[in-house]
Each structure stands twice: as C-alpha cells, then as structure tokens.
Design a protein that fits this description.
The chain contains two helices and four strands. It has 141 residues and is an alpha+beta fold. The protein has a four-stranded antiparallel β-sheet. It is rod-shaped and about 100 Å long. The protein starts with a helix and ends with a strand. 17% of the residues are buried.
Length: 141
C-alpha cells in the first residue's frame, strides 16, 4: 500500500515539474520573439530617421532661394512638425536651428536639425522611437 501512494506522489511531482518547464519555455519563446520584433522595428525607426534627415537637408538646399527667401530661418520654421509618413512610422522634425556664418566674405547657413521617428504609443507593447541630430551647411550662393 505504501508503494502505490509513493509512486502516485512521485508521478504528480514529475508532471508538475514538466508542466512548469513547458510553461517557462513557452514564455521564454514569446519574449525572444518580442525581442526580435522590437530589434527589427528599432532598426527600421533608425533608418526612417536617417531618411528624414536627408529629406530636411535636400529641402533646405534645393529650396534655398525660393522657400527660404534668402534666409535659412524661414526654411526651418516651414519644416517643423509632423512630416513624411513612412509606412507605420511618425516622422517629426523636432528642431531646426540656423546659424548664419561668414568666412572670408562668403555667407552661408549652418543648420542644426533634430528629427524623430516613432511607432506606437509610449508605454504600449511594440513602441519604438529613434531620435537623430544632424548638422549640415547650405552651400554658398
């Protein structure tokens, strides 16, 4: 009689240990998949922010005469705010500051630009955000 009770208890303990290991493996697998997904989305946010910097630079340099009216300050104020819907990312030009330079009598503008790319809402699962800063110069005219 004692042997039957002991083997039943051993069987229950083994089943409980195996069930907890299986639950742990399922949880770990889910976390690994979420980590991989967030890594990919983070890389996408990085490249979206790089694209936004290139877009700002191209707009400032190509439209230096017409959009800026001879002043880089007007270019920056027109580029601020939400821009560029890149797939599911929200791209925002957070800051665009202009500093006029004059070296050897040749005037040009130096632009200090900050852009951010984000997807989702802060605090929710799957939220990613990347902010980049770039400095570039308007070619002398």
């Amino acid at each position: 009689m004692n042997r039957r009770g002991f083997s039943l208890l051993s069987s229950i303990i083994i089943v409980l240990v195996l069930a907890s290991l299986a639950a742990y493996m399922v949880r770990l697998s889910g976390l690994m998949q979420m980590n991989t997904t967030l890594s990919v989305q983070s890389a996408r946010a990085h490249y979206a922010a790089i694209s936004a910097l290139a877009w700002v630079k191209a707009n400032v340099q190509q439209q230096a005469g017409s959009l800026c009216n001879g002043s880089g300050v007007n270019c920056c104020t027109r580029l601020l705010g939400p821009q560029l819907p890149i797939e599911s990312f929200t791209i925002v030009v957070d800051r665009c500051r202009v500093q006029s330079q004059n070296e050897t009598g040749i005037p040009y503008d130096a632009f200090n630009v900050t852009v951010s790319a984000s997807r989702g809402r802060f605090g929710q699962s799957g939220f990613v955000s990347k902010q980049l800063r770039g400095v570039f110069f308007n070619p002398p005219q």
